[in-house]
Amino acid sequence: MKDEKHSIIILTMNTLAFTVCFAVWTMNGVLVTYLMEQGVFAWDKAQIGWLIGIPVLTGSIMRLPIGVLTDKYGGRIVFGVLLLVSAIPTYLLSYANSYNEFLLGSLGFGLSGASFAVGIAYTSIWFKKERQGTALGIFGAGNAGSAITSLAAPWLLKWLTNGGENLDAWRTLPQMYAAALVVTGVVFFGFTKSKKVEHGAELTLMQRLAPLKYTRVWRFGLYYFVVFGGFVALAQWLIPYYVSAYGMSVALAGVMASIFSLPSGVIRALGGWLSDKYGARAVMYWVFGLCLVCFVLLCVPRMDIESPGQGVMADRGGVVTEVTSGRVVVGQRSYAVMPKPYAAGIGVDEDVFVLPTFTFWQEPVVKVGDTVVKKQLLARGLTHIFFQANVWIFTALVFVVGIMMGIGKAAVYKFIPDYFPKEVGVVGGIVGVIGGLGGFVCPIIFGYFLQGTGIWTTAWMFFFVVALASHLWLHATVRKMMREQAPALAVQIEDRRPPEEMADEVPLHQLHPTLTPAETK
Known about the structure:
four-stranded antiparallel β-sheet, 3 domains, three-stranded antiparallel β-sheet, alpha+beta
């Protein structure tokens, strides 16, 4: 009973500490966007991508060494020290006056992102195997810290700067985050205790990295790149996305971004339960499938395009005697012209538009008195394509993506103990590093794509390609396993002929190994 009480306390403190760390880790998504919107700094889109991604880089690459330290010294010491040490560069960020100084400070406070590695290890040792999945799912809900930053940080910045009148007061925000890390660290040390665990023989670094030789580890890493790296990247990138693409304030953009990040963080426990019940592979099929559908729909950018359409040509020569918006008369021959249905810029920019609208009209290119010849153009055709990219439909699709990513994060970690039961910590750490790197490189890639094309939806195009590659790799692996482990069944599934035509080729007892040949007659 006493151990159970301690385990609940440890889980509570770990989840609290992880939530605070995750909130700090994703701070730049709001802070950098606010500083750019207010004109405090003049950074380009690529630099914004670097500033959003660089903390994620630190947190990602430090997961493996932090995991090793946790194995050696215990979760209580490592987690507590991590909280206190992370507070130092977070506080120093408030003194940044240039891009390089901001980059350096961001690189430092990104250490808070490594809290996942120590929290997973420290949580798992306090629970029996049959309860570890639920416990780790609850701990993983600390991802919702990004939603806390998305919701709270914009309002804090507005309040601290007195509505933008004292912009230099933005420096108080990282100081407040640093104070939150220190307070959490002190409370953590006060309510937790160490637990001695026998780890067995000490492993060298090369031994710990041995699983890297297995392709399966890289495949799991690619899955996690999409579902976790994508989550971390979008939790921050959506704020400047809403601000620039939809003209929202930073505060409102933070609320909209939290619709993505909050459910994605807290639903991780459900993903673990679904993976236990239906299998991680089946869950990942649904995750990738639904994400791909949403990515395709999100790829379509806001459009206001005029392109050439079908024109009107003279079928005989002559002199133009009349030109109106509705017709052109050449000699005795009258040609109908489709007039423009609305004045320029009126009636198209409305939130009620959901599907793309197509409007056609024709404009005369000749005037009265002109002499024209057969097949000469009398009126040029124009096609106006308008797509609002309705913000509520956009947000609904992003919400579905967030839910799928949250479920997928748990499903990926369900694979690891199934295939690497004796190397869960090492493989989990490596997969976590690869996934975390996704959160680093994605904002940078988004920034360069945006700078090169000027189209915000290139982010979704990138995710579509990576998710499709992951889905195809998963499917190819399933097909390969089927052919290797149940070749006869694989043949029957893939053959389109009726079963009775295959009866002589594939004996029933081969399809059902538990039955003897006599029982299948």
